[in-house]
Write a structure and sequence with these properties.
The chain is an alpha+beta fold. It has a single domain, classed as Sandwich (Immunoglobulin-like). The chain is built from 1 helix and 9 strands, in the order αβββββββββ. The strands form 2 sheets. It has a 6-stranded antiparallel β-sheet, with no helix packed on it. Strands 6-3-9 form a 3-stranded antiparallel β-sheet, with no helix packed on it. The longest helix is centred in the N-terminal third of the chain and has 25 residues. The chain starts with a helix and ends with a strand.
Length: about 170
C-alpha cells in the first residue's frame, strides 16, 4: 500500500472517530435549576387638588368646597389616607384659615369624608381612627374632600385666608 493511500486511510479513520465522539458528546448533557424570584413591595403615590372656597361675600351663609385626592396604590393593598390639622389649626376638628396679612385673624373650617358632613377627616389610621380607609387597585383612584366654613364668623379683617394641610397615606 502506498504512502498516500495509508495517509488517506488514516485520515478517514480519524474523521470517523471525531464524528462519533462529537455525536456522543452531543447526546450527553447535564441540567440544573435556575431559581427566579421577585418581591413586590407595597407602594403608593398621592396628589391633591386645591380646595378653594372662593369669595365669601356674606359670612352669614355656610360656604362649601371640594378637593380631590388622587392615589395609586399596589393592587390589594389596604391602608388609610389622613389629613392633619393644617398649619393654622390646633386639631383635626379645629382647623383654621389664617389671614395672609395678619396671622392672628382666623376663620374656622372643617374637612369631611362625606358630603353630608357626618364623618370628620382626621389623621388617625385604624378601624377606630378618623383617617379614610382604602384598598389599592393598582390604578389611579379618587377621593373627594368636602370642606365647610360655617356661617356666623366675623373675622376682624377681610383679605386672603389660607392653610396648608398635609395628606398622609398609611400602609
Amino acid at each position: 500500500m502506498s504512502k498516500s493511500m495509508k495517509f488517506l486511510k488514516a485520515l478517514c479513520a480519524y474523521s470517523m472517530l471525531i464524528g462519533i465522539q462529537n455525536g456522543a458528546s452531543a447526546s450527553a448533557h447535564e441540567t440544573a435549576s435556575l431559581q427566579v424570584t421577585a418581591t413586590l413591595q407595597n407602594s403608593c403615590t398621592i396628589a391633591a387638588t386645591p380646595l378653594a372656597f372662593g369669595n365669601i361675600t356674606n359670612p352669614t351663609v355656610d360656604t362649601s368646597g371640594t378637593a380631590t385626592l388622587t392615589y395609586n396604590c399596589t393592587n390589594g393593598m389596604t391602608g388609610y389616607i389622613g389629613l392633619n390639622q393644617g398649619s393654622g389649626g390646633t386639631a383635626v376638628n379645629a382647623r383654621q384659615l389664617t389671614n395672609n396679612a395678619s396671622s392672628s385673624v382666623k376663620l374656622n373650617y372643617w374637612l369631611y369624608q362625606d358630603s353630608s358632613r357626618a364623618q370628620n377627616w382626621g389623621n388617625t389610621p385604624g378601624s377606630t381612627g378618623d383617617a379614610k380607609a382604602f384598598t389599592g387597585t393598582g390604578a389611579s383612584a379618587n377621593m373627594t374632600v368636602y370642606g365647610f366654613i360655617p356661617a356666623g364668623q366675623t373675622p376682624a379683617q377681610s383679605g386672603m385666608f389660607g392653610d396648608t394641610v398635609t395628606v398622609t397615606v398609611y400602609y
